[in-house]
Amino acid sequence: MLSVVAFVVALGFGIVAPAIPLFARSFGVGTTAVGLAVSAFAFFRFVSAFGGGSLVERLGERVVLTLGLVTVAVTTGAAGLAGNFPLFLGLRAAGGVGSAMFTVAALSLLLRVSPPSHRGRAAATYQGGFILGGIAGPAAGGLLAELSPRLPFLLYAGFLLVAGGVSLLFLRSPAAPGLAAAPAAAPEPDAGPLPLRAAFRSRVYLAALVVNLGVGWMLFGVRNSLVPLYVTEELGRTVTWAGLGLLAGSLAQAVGLLRSGRLADAWGRRPSLVLGTALATGATAVLVLPPATWAFLLSMSVFGLAASLLSSVPAALVGDISPARGGRVVAVFQMSADLGGIVGPLAAGWLTDAAGFQVAFGVTTAVLGLGLVAALALPRSAGARPAPSGVAQSPAGTAR
Asked: What residues does the Major facilitator superfamily (MFS) profile domain cover (predicted)?
């Protein structure tokens, strides 16, 4: 059910994404204001995530998830009806708060009800819903925006209300029915959340944060902001080639997710994380080489495969150290990717203006390389195959 909700949310977001700059422009504002309309959602999502985690610990995942979806639905629908830019900007910012509530609650619930032996596959399936919706949404969004820039906002609001209805109808029980066959694998429903201070003392959690920062830096930031400019200005190709590269990466990630979760569960977290960070670092390092179209397409495809591992393994590690309700622990994990998505494009853009694309990609490679170092530094027990009987994991990442 969470994967269905993720698909609906990502589909709607993909539909509305092309319309945001067009609708903002319709108010007669400049390019900077258009950029502000895009970034306000991400910024308020970042700053409110920790509060969303606290709400999860107090109210429960299902309540916060539904409230978050309804908040984004109402603010998005109202934004599509806004009559001036300040109101539109404020509603976009409020939507970011609702998005933080939804994503923290959904991931917290997913990790809590997934037994260790299936946690990687659960995270991969959940991420697959986002990816498939993200691939399908933008194409329809461009066509709808041509009809009216307001229409995608209203349609997205409708999608979110459907997702909220799904969560209310099908996420009624705090424990997953499928866990009845393996009760030892499930945490106690009333177990208290892992203190954030204890999580920060875990090398496993710190590694997940570092890797997620790199994922946000490249996947959510640099890839979307710098890669299209690299293709048109450095490779001398059209925007169509940039779209082909991004599509190749998304398709590779979608295909890789079919196996990445099983690798994380059967092969082990540590070797899967080492493989993912090594592929991501190597793929980005290719862009530091002299410009070539084949190298660009290869880089995007290999990074897509790496992203399939990095979308599931770090989340599974967070679930391993915090099997109970982990609102704030999950919130900080999400914030690390959001921080990378905010800082990455700004840093890479400044480096490109000052020293060129290769330097910007070199720094991005270094950020991803930190994730590889953190993965290699994980304790061997963090990479062990989860016990089928559901052996609990300690905050330090060692089986007990």
From this structure: 1-383
